[in-house]
Amino acid sequence: MSEVPTRTVFFVSDGTGITAETLGHSLLAQFPEGRFRQVRAPFVDDIDKAIECAAQIREAAAADGVRPIVFSTLVNDDTIAALHKADALFLDLFERFIGPLETELGQRSTHAVGRFHGIADSINYKHRIEAINFAMAHDDGVSSDGELAEADVILVGVSRSGKTPTSLYLAMQFGVKAANYPLIPEDFERNKLPGELHKYRTKLFGLTIAPERLSQIRQERRPNSRYASFENCRYEIDAAHKLMRRENIRWLDSTTKSIEEISATILQTVRVDRPGF
Amino acid sequence: MSEVPTRTVFFVSDGTGITAETLGHSLLAQFPEGRFRQVRAPFVDDIDKAIECAAQIREAAAADGVRPIVFSTLVNDDTIAALHKADALFLDLFERFIGPLETELGQRSTHAVGRFHGIADSINYKHRIEAINFAMAHDDGVSSDGELAEADVILVGVSRSGKTPTSLYLAMQFGVKAANYPLIPEDFERNKLPGELHKYRTKLFGLTIAPERLSQIRQERRPNSRYASFENCRYEIDAAHKLMRRENIRWLDSTTKSIEEISATILQTVRVDRPGF
């Protein structure tokens, strides 16, 4: 059997290219045997840049011996025509979907270049930046009295259970203000939630993790420490489970989950009082 | 003229729904006059959940008086069929694009549920989490000697010019390790780059911002301070420009740009030595 050739995949956009890349990655993940080399081509917002991009596509085709795959979110007809002069499998997101949407809504789309990523929506954007600042300022149990009232979600869990990257993802992707609080041995000895968390019970969400995995992650940080030892990890996780069960905190196991999956689950569970949630 | 009715828009997925939502937002941004109410429906991974989701779609249609728009990344045929029993404009990302890809690649797709977001790609995922930890540990000039050697990008600029959210976005979306360093009055007096930055000249990228906007952002943090005054902001920005020009640092103005746009521009400029860049 012949070997699968490497294909070059282009993500072409008149804006950042992030929508094209997100969809492209999702679709290519359905072909685990494929071998793909990825090229980003953002800000292709005039014909000259489209002609240059078409040349790059032709070069890749010659180098690979197979034609490239192009995920595109271009909205300008002339730019699209210039790009299509290269030979490739073009998967045009705009072209496929905008027609049915125009018919359904009874409105013409603006065909506005650079708007494709939707960040022109400045209220949402402002929420996201505020939420990122909030997550940075309320990471790892850092919070002044009363500030947690502003949080949409408060994550709790033992050190290195995934709270910080999840808080940041919730902020970045959804504009959700997430604080996070570590559960530490002192909390287990007192058998109480830290600080003023009891006041915000409806906002709490717990993360847990398999002790083997936790020990592995902690070893990378502090090799051969008591902190990283399997015994200690198992003790902390057991104690955290007891505390969360007693306090009636919803939780999930982050061991085999991505921050995307954890965040989507949290948003199904914790009620965020804002339009869009 | 009659008022535009509010439409309910569903983002339906057997996974997190983030791909459906990203594409949906991009397309809806082309209809600035539309009024949309958004509903996320992640983890629709069996027929029962699809039937329940179809019921939600019918309810929304009845409440709005117009049929909803559904962006879907479902991959299972039976689940899709159950969902399509509701009346809506279905924009199926998987269905539209997977056929042409299968033909082109000469491979069957796995139709693997929950894989659509592509995060099964665990090497990339590991890079992203490491990069987030790196950005957190190297925010705002915090770096021990030698650690910057690991950075892919080092952002510089005056306080509140957008360095921190951009560093985090580079990490989260692209797995790029970004440190950031504030340029402060002491640097301007010495007219030199802070710390050991001169050693990493090829990794440096500057952010600047209009003094009016900077003053506004700083006022929200420290009202009526010298730090936030327009005069001081103008002084710091002028001095930063001089320093960056003298040191030959590429930069861009973040005033009207999103972190997505800033990040995509940085990746076009700074060379990241890793597959995929």
TrEMBL record, chains A, B:
Q: Name one Pfam family in it.
A: Kinase-PPPase
Q: Where does ADP bind?
A: 157-164
Record's InterPro entries? Kinase-pyrophosphorylase (IPR005177), PSRP (IPR026530)
Q: Which domain of life is it from?
A: Bacteria
Class in the EC hierarchy, top level:
transferase
- Which EC numbers characterise this protein's activity in its record? 2.7.11.33, 2.7.4.28
Per the record's keyword annotation, is Transferase included, yes or no? yes
The UniProt keywords, alphabetically, are:
Kinase, Nucleotide-binding, Pyruvate, Serine/threonine-protein kinase, Transferase
* GO molecular function terms attached to this record: ADP binding; ATP binding; phosphotransferase activity, phosphate group as acceptor; protein serine/threonine kinase activity
Catalytic activity annotated for this protein? Answer: [pyruvate, water dikinase]-phosphate + phosphate + H(+) = [pyruvate, water dikinase] + diphosphate; [pyruvate, water dikinase] + ADP = [pyruvate, water dikinase]-phosphate + AMP + H(+)
Report the protein's function: Bifunctional serine/threonine kinase and phosphorylase involved in the regulation of the phosphoenolpyruvate synthase (PEPS) by catalyzing its phosphorylation/dephosphorylation.
Family membership: Belongs to the pyruvate, phosphate/water dikinase regulatory protein family. PSRP subfamily.
Concerning HAMAP family, the annotation shows:
PSRP
Give the protein's recorded name. Answer: Putative phosphoenolpyruvate synthase regulatory protein
The organism that produces this protein has a lineage beginning with: Bacteria, Pseudomonadati, Pseudomonadota, Betaproteobacteria, Rhodocyclales
